[in-house]
Amino acid sequence: MSQPTERNRLDGEASPYLQQHADNPVNWQPWGEEAFERAREHDVPVFVSIGYSSCHWCHVMAEESFEDESVAAVLNEEFVPVKVDREERPDVDSTFMTVSQLVTGGGGWPLSAWCTPEGEPFYVGTYFPPEPRRNQPGFRDLCERITDSWADPEQREEMKRRADQWATSARDELESVPEPAVSGGDGDAGAPGADLLNEAAAAAVRGYDDEYGGFGSGGAKFPMPGRIDVLLRAYAQTGRDAALTAATGTLDGMARGGMYDQIGGGFHRYAVDRQWTVPHFEKMLYDNAELPLAYLDGYRLTGDASYARVASETLGFLDRELRHEDGGFFSTLDARSRPPESRRGDAGTEGGDGGDHDDVEGAFYVWTPGEVDAVLDEPAAALAKDRYGIESGGNFERGTTVPTLAMSVSALADEHDLSPEGVREALTAARVALFEARDSRPRPARDEKVLAAWNGRAISAFAAAGQVLGEPYAEIASEALAFCRDRLYDEETGDLARRWLDGDVRGPGYLDDHAFLARGALDTYSATGDPEALGFALDLAATVVDDFYDADDGTIYFTRDPDAAADDDDTLFARPQEFTDRSTPSSLGVAAETLAALDGFRTDREFADVAERVVTTHADRIRASPLEHVSLVRAADRVASGGVEVTVAADAVPDAWREALGERYLPGALVAPRPPTEDGLAAWLDRLGMDDAPPIWAARDAVDGEPTAYVCEGRTCSPPETDLDAALEWLAERRE
């Protein structure tokens, strides 16, 4: 019998991750029905390998196994090997990751799954070493054992039974749609309410690491901005100090540690240790979109200027290193790069790596004392080394140091007999010099996919910064939104694609693409008053309802209705929903919250009804574990409370008003600008294709031609006020 796959077919794929494997001796196939048809034709299993371009352990497994001719021979002769970019195919990733978590209790990337020709996995894992190690089988040995088992009829039947059981369990988890509670009319008794925010916050406090910040006291620490958000909201509602301490302690811990790039700004993926010192060095667009939102809210609530600085520097990193010249945002920077010349010496010298010139994790970001001395004169060099903890021996591999904030400004002033102002001035200059020197090093590779979903989150972050830090950030949000609309969206058909890469567009978009981009468009409207951005948000939200919402099940699926979308992939054995917040927020929760927020711009109640139905359908799941379902908790809170809306009737929101709104901590508040006159509003309605003014704008004209604010909460509104402070005071008194 001939090999099931005779050549590697990834050379025709645009994905940078798939291109990384296009030269492997493994005959990789892209995901699709053709690959599974080959497996059925040759009666062999399918090996599915899922990863992404900046994944460190994906690179390691590729070098150890997928570039090995002997391993490739086994995969090519006995399997149909399939490579999946999890960023392009989040539905495949979600489905197989669910199996991994159900079966092994964990997951991660690379994700490795051996499947029947029908696409159901019977063996799953993550990274496998080339040889057995620490209770892990060697990859080639494992493949050979699976081959032998598949050849035995009895064992094959057992593998198929296992695959069927696992697929059934995954479907039960991913497609779970319990019967919703019986409707009780307004304020549906079946829908969870605002109390869940405090329950989620209490759970977060219980898991808080009060020594180093973050959650959990074991090994790795992950950024969890959703947890920070519920803690800040709970403190604002209850005044409970423990909630604020957990939120600010986590913000402080991340900002002091090596997970934050102390020299260039922006966050790495996560820290491998409890102290936040050593990160996995890849930089993801979504982390650097979500975390500024948390720091901006921390600044609004506490007034701590360091939080505004971290947010500004992080967004500055995105603008500088992940932004297309026309406005959209690229996906990732790799964890690895070639070491600089200073670390290519002989083994045993400071920073020497034995002459190894291959890409090394963290090489771009770490320092040795000698490298600092080569850039800075004294006393700046000593100050910088003390500030960032850069010392001989280091805290990372090869004697290098991941910079952290190892000493405070006051401690440095005492140590070096300088004034605090003098220390700050010297450190500012030193940091600029170190950044410029670092910029000449070999750079990490950049994955230049522009993903609709991740851009949506970045747009929301820049729009929020526009309200807090100034108009230039809002302009960047507008430009990124225009990029996505021009390149990923078909105005005639209303179709949104998943990704753009150097002119190549692939799709169709998933729920996260529509929900996150709709939210970004809504936030851009709030920050700029651009009605076109609002219209785009409404169009995307309508697609969510039309194509992803299932009225019979009362939920919003991650993929379109397979019966209504002929171009969607039907190879997957489950149609997933995204309940929990992981590295990105739950698309189900963001969709429901965004629909609830947009309801005021509709003259019917469809968006609100769908949002309420979703949180009611999943009420038991949310109540059972609110901390794992933060986005759904926020959606439930919005449905229950109606949220805060600030309608401003004016030709433009006054700068002083924007500044005042930006300084106020009003989580989830929607600023809704509108023209000051009925004639101006009529022109907007015509542009948006609306026959009548929606509730959020209706009968809210400017008073005596002056900018006028209407502040609403729970569908109850203040009188029209030409003094914004008076309108906000109405809200404060209402909450007392």
Q: Termini distance?
A: 78 Å
Q: Calculate the mean pLDDT score and round it.
A: 93
Q: Shape from CA axes?
A: globular
CATH topology of the domain at 10-174: Glutaredoxin
Major sheet, described briefly? 5 strands, mixed
Q: Which strand order do you get reading across the main beta sheet? A: 1-3-2-4-5
Radius of gyration: 27 Å
* Helix content bin: 40-55%
CATH A-level architecture of the domain at 10-174: 3-Layer(aba) Sandwich
CATH superfamily heading of the domain at 10-174: Glutaredoxin
Q: What structural class do the secondary elements suggest?
A: alpha+beta
> What ranges have pLDDT less than 50 throughout 5 or more consecutive residues?
181-188, 346-355
Instruction: Output the CATH class name of the domain at 10-174.
Output: Alpha Beta
How is this structure best described in words?
It holds the Pfam family Thioredox_DsbH. This is Thioredoxin domain-containing protein. By secondary structure, the protein is α+β, with helices and mostly antiparallel strands. A hairpin with a 4-residue loop joins strand 16 and strand 17. It is globular. About 2% of the residues have low confidence.
